[in-house]
Amino acid sequence: MLDSKKFLITALVLPIFCLLCLTGYKIYIFSVGEEVTLSIEGYDPRDLLSGHYLTYRVIYGVNDVCNDNKYRSKKEGFICLDSKKFSYNRPYNCNLFIKGICKYKRFIAGIERFYIPQSAAVKLDRLVRDNKGKIVVSITKSGVAQVKKLLINDQAWENL
Amino acid sequence: MLKQWVENKIITTEQSEKIKRFEQKKPSSSWAYLSILILGASVMGIGVISIIAANWNLTPPFVKLIVNFASLSLVAFGVYHSKLKGHLLRSESLLVLFIILCLASIGLISQVYHTGGHLYQALMFWSLITCVVPFISKKLFVPFIWSFGFFTGFSLTLAESPAVQEIIKMNHLVVAMLMPLICAVLIIIIKILLGEISLTRALRIWLIGGGILALMNAETGIYRIFRSIKYLDMYSFVPAYICVAFALVGIYKTDEFKKAQKIILLFTIICYLVPFHLLMFEVKSKFLMATFTILTMGGASIFFASRKYRRTFVFIITLIGIRFLFLYFQALGGLAYTGFGLIISGLIIIGSVVMWNKYRTRVANWAEGLI
User: Fold this and answer.
1) Are residues A57 and A112 in the same domain?
2) Residue A98 belongs to what domain range?
3) pTM value?
4) Gap between the Cα atoms of B70 and B76, Å rounded
């Protein structure tokens, strides 16, 4: 079985197919989600696999996020952007919400990262630290969010 | 070697010369050639990751993605073509490049779409999408790096994922205990379905390595017992018990092992689990911990010897020796005692190396014949 042509093709095509699906899923969130602009503040580390990125704290304008001492480690959480409220359960009567994870009292929605070229890292880092950054995110109906753009002084960072 | 054989009249001088001439005419060994090819492919793969990580903003994202998928498909075709033509070395090196390129592709996609998340999540995803690739490899390297990615990704996912925290409770000790057991279950399943392949060999290396790391974790756990115990309860052991049950059924069903080998495996598994349970029951005896570590390694060494895995046997025996030495250090107290202890330990090390060097073949033969 292991030496058959079919098995060989499966082994080689499966990873490429899965990667294409992942890309397709990302394109889907990009295109169907609702666009929202959120303010950010943060600093610049780097990733071994994908290079330099800015990481920041997203300002949702919501109080009491992930504050329950019962869930100290990791627990799913939701922020309703309409009513500006946080809950540990999926919110009803909310048109636009972001799904994330509460970890050590921090809300992580997977949008806390923006990849940038190495050459622009220092400059962008400084501007984001000075609270001049914003991100444009795309949010699906199920609350999955993805970063689309980084804005500096309300303009695309590439225009700097 | 040949000189010694001639001196001891095992072979004649003429035969010795013939052997020398024959060996000189043989082509250079393929493992060295393969190692260099694999090294080249790995370096190329890492180079691709670096190029992607540089994040060239002048290239539009879709161009990056197209180039990425085109390269991936080209390398995949290269593997396919080389396999069909029977070029083993070429196909293995291309397979290394392919599997690294898959990881680089995840990096590129997360860069283009600014995905959050950790490296271990990327490794987990990578090991899942490439899980069939190690089965087509005929050499050890691809299954070895795949298993590394899988166990790193899987153990950290277990430790961090909110879905399993009711059981795991972010306790790294539970994850460490679980990994070798999962490895054992995988080996048994693959062996039952497909027999001995490169992947089972690679998994065996991780089983031994993971087992040693887990035991070290348990033994050091005694020093942080109050922190560990807080989250360690019977629920934490449920996944381990399930794995042990699977492993035992697999061991019982297999015809490959003799009855005595099955018993020694059972003994090894029980001894392996004891140190973790000692921690749960707050038993703070260092010596009891060390005893079960040594018994686990002892059981494993006898099993591997009986299966004629001589190098593995020698490796585990060496570890047992080192553990005994540490046990001796643990037993010491005060500077004067430590001074005498170090002198005696030095003598023991030298003595054991000399003795081991002299008698290792005899000991291995004896162990192989034990069961």
Assistant:
1) yes
2) 34-159
3) 0.78
4) 10
